Amino acid sequence: MNDAKVIQQTDAEVGARIRMRRRVLGMSQHELAGKIGVTFQQVQKYEKGSNRVGSSRLQSIASALRVSPATLFGEGEQQSSNSQTFNFDELDDLLMTDALALNRAFRKIGKPEIRSAVIEFVESLGSVKPSE
User: Which of 40, 48, 94, 120 could cysteine-pair with 29, CB 3.0–4.6 Å?
Assistant: First the structure.
C-alpha cells in the first residue's frame, strides 16, 4: 500500500478558488490566516489542495473572503459542455498582477458611463496588432 498523500481534484479546485478570491481582494495569506485562526502555512496547504478544508473551516474562509461556501465549490460557475475540469492555466492567467491591479482600479470607478468607456477602450487596445 502506498502511503503517499494524493491530492484530490476537488481539494485542489477549492484551494484554487480560495487563492483566487483572496488575491482578488488583495488579501495576503497572513491576513486570511489571522481571520480564520490558523497559520499562513496552513492557508498555503489549503490553497495547494494538500490539506482538505473541513466544513466549519470552509465556512470561516468563505466568510473572511465575503463569498458563500458554495462559491468556493464552484457552484454558479458556467462550465462548457466539453470541459468538466478546472483549468488551472486560466486561473494563473486571471491572477496576473496587472490584471488584479486593473480590476481593483476599475472597481473604484463609480460612474457606469465611465466604466463602459474604460471597457470599450481596453477592448479596442486588445484588437490593435503590434507593429513588427
Answer: 40
